[in-house]
Structures are given as structure tokens and as C-alpha cells.
TrEMBL record:
It is found in: Endoplasmic reticulum membrane. One of its GO terms (biological process) is triglyceride biosynthetic process. This is Acyltransferase. Its EC number is 2.3.1.-.
Length: 343
């Protein structure tokens, strides 16, 4: 009788397990979004508040250590493999889901500069593929260590900097990237080339990249003889809907002015609610993201590249990126008529 009772309950328990799994996936993504938006501000205010309480010594000790440790992000950071393999990131990956596609070998005997496109609102695809092991980066590219380069100012934010470094992130500064590419072979530096400007132009169903005037990553590759690799995250722009302000409006001008001052643009975006599917919220839409890593472009070592050399390899990179997009857009759910706009 006990066996029959267990068998009769099994069909009912399966949907319950599936619902629980979906809720855990949503919670894992929500904590990631909240961390991105509020983690740094929360701990900054907390440490300041503690200075005026009986726990003031905690803040003083942390800030003393923070000053002593200030150069660590510029020297490769402090990645934590246990953090990168945290089970929460598998739930995060499955929510969308996110998939990493390898198109060519990247031997660990070389260094690489990976250009990641598009920026999107929050770089969900790049984070999962290169800052965690949820998508299996180390299995796909054995011997290669990936480091996602983000806004350098974030590494001055108390406690948040530890979170960033644990995942393998580094400042997107010449000093930081030079350190990694000089440390020996086997490093894959990932740069989200479009940056804050591109984040203001990401809309569902559109593929617009800001790349024409961005040549610093090409110059960096030439200076270190690191191969250039295009990466495209199909579906990145579909997980949020951005509230767009008309060109020339006051709010649009404020966005652009803030971007020039702080290095990032304050975007207003909406997703879905955790509990009510018809309500707006901070949770991204569960739209598939496919991160396709293209073929490497062999780059010679040129410590002092001339402008024409930079232009040549920039043109080769743009051509390879466009080819990557055309070859894989059909397999990633985009219509054959979908075009890639590069400005």
C-alpha cells in the first residue's frame, strides 16, 4: 500500500518540484540584479553609519585594509573559483537560459582580447559565460582564464569590490589589462566594447552596436600580440525594456552628461515582477541568451602600433563580427532579415 501511495503522489509532486525550481531560478536572478543595483550603495552607507555607533572599529579596520588593498584590482584581482562555481549561478543560467557556443579552439599558449557585444542593460550573457562556470567556460576552453573588464570606478566601492574580484572581474583600465596580458599566456580579457553609450540604445528586437570609433581594444591587442576574438550575445537586448527619452530632451541630455562624468549611463528599464507576471519589476524576462565565441584573429606583437595598423585590424575585427552574426543568427532565433547596425 505504501508503494502504491508513493506512486500516486509522484505525478502530483513533479509539477510542484518544477514550480519550486522556477521560483529558485527567479530568486537567483533577482538577487543578482539587486546586487548590481544596490549592493555597493548599501555597504557604503552601512560602513559610514557604523562609524557613529559602538561598532565604529569595524568600519575603521575595513577602511584601513581597503587602503592597503587598493592596488589589488589593478594586479589581476582576487578571483575565487568556489564563488565562480556557486550553485546559484546554475540557477541563474537556467532562468533565461544562457548557453555558451564555441566555434573554434583558443589554445592556452596565446593571450586573447575578446570583444563582447552587445552591452545590453546588465550584461547577463557575458556575466554567466565569463564570470562564472555555469556555462562551462573552463571545459570549453581548458587552460584559459577569463576576466571580464568593467568600469574601474566600481573597484573603489567598499565590499562591492570584493564581490567583483571574486567573480574574476577586473578594471577596464590600461594598467589593469596590461598586467594580465604581461603575466604570461592563457589569459582571455573580455571587454564590452560598446560601453555605456551602447546601453542607452539597447531595445528588444534591435541589434545596434557602437564600434566604429572604438579602437582602444585593438591597440591593446597589438601591443601585447594578443589575438582578437569577436563575441556576440544573441538575446541580450531582449531581457529588459528600456524607457527611451527623445533625442534632445532634458532627460536624454542628463543621461549623456552623467555618462561623460561617471563613465556609465543611468538607464531606466523595466522587466517583470517576481510574483505577478503582468506587473513591471526588476526581474529580467526569461528570454534565451546564446553567447557565441568566434574564431580568433591572429594579431602580431607590435609594441608601438601605427594608426593604419590599428585601422587594419579594427576593420578585420568588424568583418569577423558581422560574419559571426550572419552565420549564427538563424540558430539563435533571429529572422534571416535581421540586420546588425554598427555605428
Amino acid at each position: 500500500m505504501d508503494g502504491r501511495a508513493g506512486a500516486s503522489l509522484s505525478p502530483r509532486s513533479q509539477p510542484e518540484k518544477m514550480i519550486l525550481r522556477k521560483q529558485l531560478e527567479a530568486l537567483s536572478v533577482l538577487q543578482w540584479v539587486l546586487t548590481f543595483l544596490f549592493f555597493g550603495l548599501f555597504f557604503t552607507l552601512l560602513l559610514i553609519y557604523l562609524l557613529f555607533t559602538s561598532f565604529w572599529s569595524l568600519s575603521v579596520l575595513y577602511f584601513v585594509w581597503w587602503i592597503m588593498d587598493l592596488d589589488t584590482p589593478m594586479q589581476g584581482g582576487r578571483r575565487n573559483e568556489r564563488f565562480r562555481r556557486w550553485k546559484v549561478w546554475e540557477l541563474h543560467r537556467n532562468y533565461f537560459p544562457i548557453k555558451l557556443v564555441k566555434t573554434a579552439e583558443l589554445p592556452p599558449t596565446r593571450n586573447y582580447v575578446l570583444g563582447s557585444h552587445p552591452h545590453g542593460i546588465i550584461c547577463a550573457g557575458a556575466f554567466s559565460a565569463f564570470c562564472t562556470e555555469a556555462c562551462g567556460f573552463s571545459r570549453a576552453f581548458p587552460g584559459l582564464s577569463s576576466s571580464l573588464a568593467v568600469l574601474a570606478g566600481l573597484f573603489y566601492v567598499p565590499v562591492y569590490r570584493e564581490y567583483l574580484m571574486s567573480s574574476g572581474m577586473v578594471p577596464v583600465s590600461k594598467r589593469s589589462l596590461d598586467f594580465l596580458l604581461r603575466a604570461g599566456p592563457g589569459h582571455a580579457v573580455v571587454i564590452v566594447v560598446g560601453g555605456a553609450t551602447e546601453s542607452l540604445d539597447c531595445n528588444p528586437g534591435e541589434q545596434r552596436l557602437h564600434l566604429s570609433g572604438r579602437r582602444g581594444f585593438v591597440r591593446l591587442a597589438l601591443q601585447h600580440g594578443a589575438d582578437l576574438v569577436p563575441v556576440f550575445s544573441f538575446g541580450e537586448n531582449d531581457i529588459f525594456r528600456q524607457i527611451q527619452f527623445p533625442e534632445g530632451s532634458l532627460l536624454r541630455r542628463l543621461q549623456l552628461h552623467f555618462k561623460q562624468l561617471a563613465g556609465f549611463a543611468p538607464c531606466l528599464f523595466v522587466g517583470r515582477s517576481l510574483f505577478f507576471s503582468r506587473c513591471w519589476g526588476l526581474l529580467p524576462q526569461p528570454s534565451p541568451i546564446t553567447v557565441v565565441v568566434g574564431k580568433p584573429i591572429l594579431v602580431p606583437l607590435c609594441p608601438h602600433p601605427k594608426p593604419e595598423e590599428v585601422d587594419r585590424y579594427h576593420a578585420l575585427y568588424v568583418q569577423a563580427l558581422q560574419q559571426l552574426f550572419e552565420e549564427h543568427k538563424g540558430n539563435c532565433g533571429l529572422p534571416s532579415s535581421q540586420q546588425l547596425f554598427i555605428t
